[in-house]
Amino acid sequence: MDTLSQDVDLLRYEPELFEADLHLASQVLSVGTDGVIAGTSFTSALADFEAAGLQAGDVIHLQSGGGAVNGPFEIIERVSTTELTVSVVRAGSQAPVPPPANASYVAYRVCTYKPQAWEMMLLLTERFGLRPGRADAEFGLEDLVDAGVLRRASVLGILAGLYARLGSRATDVETMWKKSVYYRGLFDQAVERCRMALDAGDDGVADLTRLGGVRRLRRD
Q1: Cβ neighbours of residue 184 under 8 Å, at least 6 residues apart?
Q2: DSSP 25-44
Q3: Domain with CATH 2.40.30 in the chain
Q4: Predicted confidence (pLDDT) per residue in 123-151, tens digit
Q5: CA dihedral sign of residues 145, 148, 152, 155
Q6: How far apart are CA 14 and CA 5, in angstroms?
């Protein structure tokens, strides 16, 4: 597992992070203007989605010339170097895949927050005494019965950090800082409420439990 959450998880909370005004230009993976939407299929003859590293859970912003399509969408699958399966954002990975409207000459942009997700994964695993955040720990993420228990904390922590960063450059500084403080509060609560089951015997059965509200002490 590379990260605890994906870009689509952020999309469910704050679609504006993928809009032109707020996305991080330095973290754009792919961009173009020759896109074609046909059902859930999105193609760009000039793209190389494989080289860009696009994958399920990423987010693509699509805008057609007439404005019928204008917003961020979920990437369901990278079909080939020039084709993606895309969807209106879903409630979860098992939900049906509703397509955007058909369109041609679509401008597209894929901005990612994977660097922030990676840093949050290191922070949370260090907080709970797990690898890779704590390199010498007895247990790692692979030993969690369900690493999904950390997903919400990861998302909220990333949002808090992003809005703090945006507060230094956006025109509406006060709103950005208020959002950062708001998400930081939710992040702290989510961490405190985490209850993680660890499988020490590689049999899929929980042997140990770690609680977010309990600080672990380590002798240096």
Answers
A1: 156, 157, 160
A2: GGGEEEEEEEEEEETTEEE-
A3: 25-111
A4: 999 999 999 999 999 999 999 999 999 99
A5: positive
A6: 14
The three-class DSSP label of residue 51 is coil
- DSSP state letter for 128: T
The answer regarding whether domain 25-111 maps to CATH 2.40.30 reads: yes
Q: Which of 197, 5, 194, 1 is nearest to 117 (CA)?
A: 5
Q: What is the pLDDT of residue 126?
A: 96
d(CA 47, CA 58): 16
CA dist 82 and 113 (Å) reads: 22
C-beta neighbour count of 83 within 10 angstroms? 17
Per residue in 148-173, pLDDT (tens digit) is 999 999 999 999 999 999 988 767 89
- The CA distance from 194 to 212, in Å, is 5
How far apart CA 128 and CA 137 sit, in angstroms, is 10
Is residue 180 a contact partner of residue 163, using CB atoms and an 8 Å limit?
Answer: yes
Within 13 Å, how many C-alpha atoms sit on residue 185's CB side? 5
Residue 151: both structure tokens together? 């997903």
Task: Give the bridge partners for 38, in sequence order.
Answer: 41
CB atoms within 10 A of CB 96: 8
